[in-house]
Design goal:
alpha/beta; two-stranded parallel ribbon; 11 helices; 42% helix; globular; binds uridine-diphosphate-N-acetylglucosamine
């Protein structure tokens, strides 16, 4: 019988792509999502891609009794992949309690319910934000975590600590935390992709929306950083590659290959690209030059960060495969498809 995976935040950007990869790998998926930043029709799109049925529960992970009901209804759950979280850095500064409640209570509820229903495996969505500005690059998992720049970043650090402490206390618990770098792109079918709520805070959706004409101008936040062209450097990882990392993490758990009950891995490409380089590559692959201007730095931005992926390569046997060109093209095709839908609605 196939293993059943509970995917919280499964209709979101990374959750939806991961659900597709899980189903393609033969796992059964139950999605839990409160739809605060996604749409129920994403579950249908997933089904369209994989041809497999996806159970969908419209539930908020902070609601303990509703989550208890989900665990009871879908018992046994063999593993959880926990994506459900608030993720806008700027908003987290304005509404810290919302972020602490959503991100911390959800995880604590899951851990309690895992014990109650004897589910021992969880993959947690962490972030390279835990490193702050690393002293050496590429950054390895051994690098110290630094004081978070935002309540959002702090929730990722605290969640990792909650998981570590619980692993120390509960030897049955198996955790893999994946520290994502910057996930971008969309599914090659253009049936799922990123659906930013309102004005995008992240670079790629802002670029594609500017190129299509929804936004007048992209603001590039600073060209006076200590980098070759002065703009910030990030490690942009294709969302399908990232999704596949979750499948290999789960396989590792089910095959009892873990070396300790709490493991964490960098999930990036190992290559740093500047904001200006990204804009340039986008123009090459799409044929559209997004209108942009250089503005002052954005508060809380890290100057440069990219991953050392040796541990994920060696231990998980996982490696990013897609080129940044193909990935940016997939993001552009997704925006073109969304534009068609917008035009139909008018
Ligand atoms: C941030 C978080 C990261 C989180 C991610 C998801 C931090 C330090 N980073 O990543 O943990 O997982 O959001 O939401 O908390 N840029 C522009 N113009 C724009 C938008 C962005 O120039 O309109 C630049 C930024 O200055 C940055 C790069 O593009 O250099 C990427 O920005 P963004 O996509 O927002 O991601 P991060 O801030 O790296």
């Amino acid at each position: 019988m196939s293993k059943r995976i509970l995917v919280t935040g499964g209709t979101g950007f990374i959750g939806s792509h991961t659900t597709v990869e899980l189903q393609n790998a033969g796992y059964e998926v139950v999605i839990v999502d409160n739809l605060s930043n996604s749409e129920a029709k994403v579950a249908d799109a997933i089904q369209q891609i994989t041809g497999k049925k996806t159970a969908f529960e419209h539930v908020d992970c902070t609601d303990f009794s509703a989550m208890d009901h989900v665990f009871k209804k879908h018992d046994p759950i063999d593993a959880i992949i926990h994506f459900a979280a608030s993720k806008a850095v700027g908003e987290s500064v304005q509404k810290p309690l919302l972020y602490y409640r959503n991100n911390l209570v959800s995880l604590m509820n899951l851990l309690e319910l895992m014990k109650k229903y004897t589910c021992q495996n969880i993959v947690f969505s962490s972030s390279c934000t835990v490193y702050g500005q690393p002293d050496t690059l590429p950054v390895t998992e051994q690098a110290p975590t630094k004081k978070a720049e935002s309540p959002y970043g702090n929730t990722k650090q605290i969640c990792e600590e909650i998981l570590q402490d619980t692993c120390n206390a509960e030897s049955w618990l198996q955790v893999v935390a994946l520290r994502y770098f910057n996930p971008i792109g969309a599914h090659p079918t253009t049936l799922i992709g990123e659906l930013p709520n309102g004005v995008p805070a992240n670079l790629i959706p802002f670029i594609t929306q500017t190129a299509i004409g929804i936004r007048e101008q992209l603001s590039i936040f600073g060209n006076d950083y200590n980098t070759p062209d002065g703009s910030c450097i990030r490690d942009y990882i294709n969302v399908v590659d990232l999704a596949k990392a979750h499948v290999v993490a789960l396989n590792r758990m089910f095959e009892n290959k873990k070396k300790s009950n709490y493991e964490f891995f960098n999930i990036g490409t190992g290559r740093g690209l500047s904001v200006l380089e990204i804009v340039d590559i986008f123009e090459k692959v799409s044929g559209v030059k997004p209108n942009y201007k250089i503005v002052s730095r954005r508060a809380g931005d890290i100057e440069k960060v990219w991953a050392d992926t040796t541990l994920a390569n060696n231990e998980l046997g996982w490696k990013a495969e897609e080129t940044v060109e193909d990935t940016l093209l997939s993001a552009w095709k997704w925006e073109l498809k969304l534009q068609k839908e917008r035009e139909k609605k008018q």
